[in-house]
Design a protein that fits this description.
With 247 residues, the chain is mainly α. The chain has helices at residues 22-49, 95-99, 104-115, 122-133, 139-157, 162-195, 202-222, 226-235, 237-246, and strands at 5-6, 60-63, 67-68, 78-82, 87-90, 117-121. The chain contains 9 helices and 6 strands. The strands form 3 sheets. A two-stranded parallel ribbon has the order 1-3.
Length: 247
């Protein structure tokens, strides 16, 4: 866990059983990454629409993860792989700190989304980290730009209907997926170059082949057009919209 803090609020997505196969795990983890990102984009867009995030707010950055909801174990060779690429900071504050004086429940959910992890073998964390380090089009930068879009569209729009919210969040999410698709493609190319070297240690070859397979499944899942619709349905937009209107 290092210097990361454990959170008490654990979000149950209803699909917490880890699949056994590499394909199953990769598809599951990428799907949960998308669901968590969509959930965050929806929350911060609604915060901007209701001016919980003020119109004057213009500072958006991302930093390393600060919380996690679980911890890997040496005996089963797992690590806690975060679903979200980075922690969002808005004008020097974390989103859950901004919402805390309006709703403790939404505060806990927001912190829980950023702390959400999947317990997986180390290769998955390695693939995630590689995709976060790709210059210019990495998934961390894609997440930052998507968050900025979700907030600025809320600041500018003021249209509090489920349809308009869905359109705005969809536009923000497409920024993330564009970056992620490019990042995974570059990672796949780099891993193939590693495997094409004339002399590779057998242990490295096996490790890189597994990471290549994982990243290829990530790339397939991030381009799954049904994922956004499914994730927005699970986010219960109408219910959240009514809740934010009441704050």
């Amino acid at each position: 866990m290092g210097d990361r803090q454990q959170v008490d609020w654990w979000i149950d997505f209803g699909d917490e059983s880890v699949p056994k196969s590499i394909k199953g795990r990769a598809t599951w983890h990428e799907g949960r990454r998308q669901r968590t990102i969509v959930s965050i984009l929806l929350e911060i867009h609604l915060m901007a629409l209701t001016e919980i995030i003020p119109k004057s707010c213009r500072g958006f950055k991302v930093e390393k993860a600060y919380w996690q909801d679980d911890e890997g174990a040496d005996d089963d060779e797992t690590q806690a792989a975060h679903c979200v690429p980075r922690q969002l900071v808005i004008n020097g504050k974390h989103p859950h700190d901004i919402i805390s004086r309006y709703s403790t429940e939404r505060r806990d959910y927001l912190q829980g989304f950023f702390a959400k992890t999947d317990l997986l073998p180390a290769s998955f964390n390695k693939c995630d980290s590689r995709a976060e380090r790709v210059p210019l089009v990495n998934i961390a930068e894609g997440f930052r730009k998507a968050c900025r879009s979700a907030i600025t569209s809320g600041q500018m729009s003021g249209r509090m209907s489920a349809q308009n919210v869905g359109t705005a969040v969809g536009g923000a999410y497409s920024i993330y997926t564009a970056h992620a698709s490019q990042a995974f493609t570059i990672c796949i190319q780099r891993l193939k170059l590693k495997l094409a070297r004339p002399a590779i240690k057998p242990k490295d070859k096996d490790r890189w082949k597994e990471q290549l397979t994982i990243t290829q499944y990530y790339a397939q899942e991030v381009n799954n057009r049904r994922a956004f619709t499914d994730n927005m349905r699970l986010a219960e937009v109408d219910t959240l919209l009514k809740l934010y209107k009441s704050l």
